[in-house]
């Protein structure tokens, strides 16, 4: 697929997907929505890719839905089915909705939040597995100041990290908050100087791609997202089942060999 509003680059096991409307602060359009989904699925299906990094071109990560497009949006659009290919039926339906599909991807997704993140921008970030941000990143849920509500599962996503009081504050007020406050609330994981964000994020992603078993990461990603719906007994039962399969895997054998032979691992993901 030829992309016009996103960019996709693959290098050293890492796919970088960039929202590419810098003149509009990477505001989401119908075209960008389709292209982002296609790019993420294409990257996830690439056997060379083990980590996906999502970022934005220019000074913004994603300022939410493009206001020009939002103005003309029919109310019934929310019920339009996303143009999505079915994921594995073993994956929860919760992770296969129009904007919340990053958890269904095989590979871990890291959002590198290089600037403003609002509305859908925060939804994309919270649907990622990890979030690294520039010191200059600024955030706003935005919805209440547009006469809207907590869209696309953000109430659930934000509650997972920030707790009810902080979530209520940030959703009700839609006030701006900075990277420091976002990290204190648990909404982001790391903060870097603006000129170091992408280099540090890609260094981390490349290390993850080269040193960690992709099979292990794939299974652990599923465990982490599933655990949000499980009790402790369910988590332990799933872990025990997966542990047996891990012992039978090629990556386990390679994990032992490379440690004993004092060399870098050569994992296959099997």
UniProtKB/TrEMBL annotation:
What the entry lists under InterPro entries is as follows:
ClpP/crotonase-like_dom_sf (IPR029045), Enoyl-CoA_hydra/iso (IPR001753)
CDD domains listed in its UniProt record: crotonase-like
Q: Select a single GO molecular function from the record's annotations and give it.
A: enoyl-CoA hydratase activity
Q: Which residues form the signal peptide?
A: none
Its Enzyme Commission number? Answer: 4.2.1.17
Which keywords accompany this UniProt record? Lyase
- Domain of life from the UniProt record: Bacteria
> Which GO terms fall under biological process for this protein?
fatty acid beta-oxidation
What general EC class does the enzyme of this chain belong to? lyase
What Gene3D superfamilies does the database record attribute to this sequence?
2-enoyl-CoA Hydratase, Chain A, domain 1 (3.90.226.10)
Q: Which PANTHER family match?
A: 1,2-EPOXYPHENYLACETYL-COA ISOMERASE, ENOYL-COA HYDRATASE-RELATED
Protein name as annotated: Enoyl-CoA hydratase
Organism equals: Oryzicola mucosus
């Amino acid at each position: 697929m030829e992309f016009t509003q996103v960019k996709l680059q693959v290098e050293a096991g890492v796919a970088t997907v960039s929202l590419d409307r810098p003149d509009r602060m990477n505001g989401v359009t119908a075209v960008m929505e389709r292209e982002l989904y296609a790019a993420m699925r294409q990257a996830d299906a690439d056997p060379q890719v083990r980590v996906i990094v999502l970022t934005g071109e220019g000074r913004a990560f994603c300022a939410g839905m493009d206001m020009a497009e939002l103005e003309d949006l029919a109310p019934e659009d929310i019920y339009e089915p996303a143009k999505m290919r079915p994921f594995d039926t073993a994956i929860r339906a919760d992770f296969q909705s129009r904007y919340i599909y990053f958890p269904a991807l095989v590979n871990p997704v890291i959002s590198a939040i290089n600037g403003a993140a609002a509305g859908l921008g925060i939804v994309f970030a919270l649907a990622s597995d990890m979030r690294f941000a520039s010191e200059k990143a600024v955030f706003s849920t935005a919805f209440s100041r547009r006469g809207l509500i907590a869209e696309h599962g953000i109430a659930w996503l934000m509650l997972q990290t920030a707790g009810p009081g902080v979530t209520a504050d940030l959703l009700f007020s839609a006030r701006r908050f900075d990277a420091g406050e976002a990290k204190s609330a648990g909404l982001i994981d790391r903060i870097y100087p603006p000129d170091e964000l992408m280099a540090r994020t890609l260094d981390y992603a490349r290390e993850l791609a080269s040193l960690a078993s992709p099979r292990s990461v794939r299974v652990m990603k599923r465990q982490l997202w599933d655990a949000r719906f499980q009790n402790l007994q369910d988590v332990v039962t799933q872990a025990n089942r997966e542990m047996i399969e891990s012992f039978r895997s090629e990556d386990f054998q390679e994990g032992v060999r490379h440690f004993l032979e004092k060399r870098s691992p050569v994992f296959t993901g099997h």
